[in-house]
Amino acid sequence: MAFVLPKSELRRVIDELSKDYRVFRPVAKGSEFVFDEEGEPAMDYDTTILPPKKAFLPPEETMFTFKRETFHVEEVTDEKPVAVVGIHPCDLRALHLLDKVFTGEFVDPYYMRRRQSGFVVAINCVKPCEHGFCTSFDAGPGAKEGYDLLLTDLGDKYLVEVGSDRGKSFVDRLGLDSASSADVEKAKELVEEAARSMARRIDTHGLVELLRMRIEHQHWAELEARCLSCGLCNVVCPTCYCYNVVDKLDLGLNEGARIRTWDSCLLLEFAEVALGGNFRRERSARIRQRILHKLLHFVDQYGEFGCVGCGRCVKYCIKKIDPVEIVEVLRGGA
Amino acid sequence: MAKPKVAIFKFASCGGCQLQLLNIEDKLLDIIGAIDIVYFPMGKSENLEGPYDVGLVEGAITCAEEIERIKKVRASCRILVALGACACYGGIQSSRNWMPQRELEPKVYEHWEALSSTKCFGIDEYVPVDLHLHGCPVDREELLEVIKGLLMGTRAYLRPHSVCMECKLRENECLFLKGIPCMGPVARAGCGAVCPSNGAPCSACRGPANDANVESFVESLKEMGIPDEQIARMFRRDASTAKPFAKVVSMYG
How is chain B split into domains, by residue range? Predict the structure, then answer.
């Protein structure tokens, strides 16, 4: 089931969604892009600073408020559900991985509520970004599932594919024309062409077995000298999900709020426990943890790779520490 | 429980951190019921002698008289807090430490023979400090968190890692990647990345982050083409008494 949307009508999609949702879309910020609730959508963006997971797992959120003396607790819930327009296939796949973490064995009600009530308009990548390696994990440049609607840029219009009942009724509400088979074919070709021109790739063949044998490799120590342990790679990662929880009291010291914020396993204090004990005091142990969690432990736990190849970690890293390069070194090539 | 007695002291400094205290007066009023500010020469005219439960110290130690005084202050306070960059690391005046006194003093004073100026340090060069509140000036929110923590008997969460984390959370364009030497990657956070968020590079007024990799960072500065003397200046500015920064200054200064 496919339709077409003239590019001039994209605004109408956002306006229509805004009636029911807080609508995150990519907008320009200087020479970069960010997902924001305001501003003109820049659908041909390459990547955003923070991933769109922030719509479902905010960098900082209040879980509940409390009164200290009476132990009265009140849960905080969003007023409006969230919609994300213009999410790339890699970030879409990242949401699928976060779903495994947050809605699997242990359900996180805050994330789950937002996901269940949320609306996702994905857009296929017809132009590969500079740092991405999504084809390594079958995470792009075309989206396969997990969207309500999926757009592909056909020049003067978008091909609109429907991925859910909710998506279908929204298309009906917009009253879009059906796509021709030529439109569908053209979209397919554009995505295939983009996939062929992807220059970067992690060879995942036998990777899990290899990494198990590379836990003591000297390359981790080389990265220790290079890494600034700034935690930036965690912050921009669409699949990182660790968070810290703090209680904040008001000035009267009676009422307060329990707040969770994104955390980062590259930081020295991340694995610190009481009396200053620390399971990962060495920076090399922290870098290894991050890389192996994505490419080894996530596979052990969930049966899939925990990286989607969006390329943000290397793009924003001052030292250009690159998972593609790390795997090449560990394989003994390059 | 009796209200904790709080004292606020000033050493070599601009008064800006105390001003932050006055700036949160409206909020302080809410907790003023819980604390008694009994000594605060900059803020009130009636000031009582110690002992005090909590002492907030602004300023660096720069002469013999101050060494003597900070020791007395320490003895009079159950909990001692270093308030701001000067009290923590010596602050901007500590950049003079890298020049001999015999050259420095005549540059500033005509009659320098009578001076008893010493090298400039944060207060913990001389006395044990219970809590460091970084920044030039200190951040109001952090200041409030520390006051609340002291009242509750809990440890306030103060970000010990680098400024990059807070900067990225605010989705700022990275100044460093744009070729502007920014100290963010090695500087301690907690300020909310206020300078880079306003387009100005971080100057590391809060000193080094807890795991600052200055060697790797300096390598990147050199690759960027930053001359040695500028590298030394960047690390000398506010916190060159901190070991990781001192190392860079002595290598490139």
Answer: 5-152, 163-252
Q: Which residues of A touch B201 (CB under 8 A)?
A: none
Burial A177-202 (b: 16+ CB within 10 A, else e): eebeeebbebbeebbeebeeebebeb
ipTM: 0.94
Kindly determine whether residue B164 and residue A236, on different chains, have CB atoms separated by under 8 Å: no
Per-residue pLDDT of chain B (253 residues; tens, 9 = 90+): 578 899 999 999 999 999 998 888 777 766 667 788 899 999 889 999 989 999 999 999 999 999 999 999 999 999 999 999 999 999 999 999 999 999 999 999 999 988 889 999 999 999 999 999 999 999 999 998 998 888 888 888 899 999 999 999 999 999 999 999 999 999 999 999 999 999 999 999 999 999 999 999 999 999 999 999 999 999 999 999 999 999 999 999 8
Nearest to B165 among A227, A232, A248 (CB): A232
Question: Quick one: closest CA in B to A315, which residue?
Answer: B177
Task: Report the residue of chain B nearest A29, measured CA to CA.
Answer: B173
* Per-window interface: A 48-87 vs B, CB < 8 A: 49-50, 59
Sorted by where each begins, the domain ranges of chain A are 2-60+78-196, 207-331
* Reported CATH class of domain B5-152: alpha beta
Tell which residue, A333, A244, A321, A315, has the closest CA to residue A288.
A321
CB contact under 8 A, B162 and A30: no
CB contact under 8 A, A253 and B168: no
Q: Which residues of B touch A (CB under 8 A)?
A: 27, 30-31, 34, 144-145, 148, 151-152, 157, 160-162, 164-165, 168-169, 171-174, 176-177, 184-186, 209-213, 215-217, 220
